[in-house]
Amino acid sequence: MPTGLIFSETFLYHNSNSQFPHYDSPDRLLACMELLQKTTYFSLLHKPEIKEISIDSLNEVHSRNHIRKIESSKGKKGFFDPDTPFTEKSWISAFKAASSGTTMVDALLEGKIKNGFSLLRPPGHHAEGDRIMGFCLLNNIAITAKYLQIQGFKKIFILDWDVHHGNGTQEIFYRDANVFFLSVHQFPFYPMTGLPTETGEGIGIGTTQNFPLQAETEDYTYIRIFKNSIVPTIEKFSPDIILISAGFDAHKNDPLGGMRVSTQGFEELTRIILECAKYTCEGRVLSFLEGGYDLEALSDCVEAHIAVLQSFS
Ligand SMILES: [Zn+2]
């Protein structure tokens, strides 16, 4: 079965580069596509057209006020927060990105793919239910998880290995016992959340787990944590599907992150999770781009990540 790949030209509309340089530039996706198109497996990937989700589906995750803020940015330029600019058509990129995961879920349910990667922007994991922040407008992975719940998936595991803590995804599922959120991130670092003491609330206690790591952490430590802690946690939770917030800004060449992960390191982390998914959830894995700001490192990591997905498909 092929691996799914979502990419849309509409993801390039969100572009503040005409005003000032911003790390989350459309060039990120263009660099990835340029490399992917040269691979032998590119033509084998299943590339569904994005089906736009309804405002009601977005409303499962975000407040009316949050959605209205994005809609009312149509045709304007400005800032949602000091890190998060918007331009005339950013709202189109945001709604299309938010519809990527749900399109992948439909492809999964139709038996067209077993796993897939959404090469999207703007990223999503910092966006809370009622707060736009840190380059993130809509929480793409959370919207997908809610959609999966509506489609009958009982237990969903979200793994976030972006160098920044996925505060938005954590906040959205903090009281949900059926969505496990696990983050491995640099700490202390933006957004300054993600301590081991943050473990969930109410019936959600125990289904949030954080691994804050000091700057300069290398492949060896990541791989050890993945094998010794994360895989057993996934096995114990026994999810129906694994979602990955795949940021590649923990790469040693990234200009924002301070970690030392190599491209081969990310390839190995992907392999560890796909191996685990094979016997816990019949290989069902949907992955989403979050950060990653060195164009060469990002495109190499995305290519390696998709190659592993493809090899398990
Ligand atoms: Zn990040």
From TrEMBL:
It comes from Leptospira adleri. Belongs to the histone deacetylase family. It holds the Pfam family Hist_deacetyl. Residues 22-309 form the Histone deacetylase domain. PANTHER family: HISTONE DEACETYLASE HDAC1 (PTHR10625:SF10), HISTONE DEACETYLASE HDAC1-RELATED (PTHR10625). GO terms for molecular function: histone deacetylase activity. One of its GO terms (biological process) is epigenetic regulation of gene expression. This is Histone deacetylase.
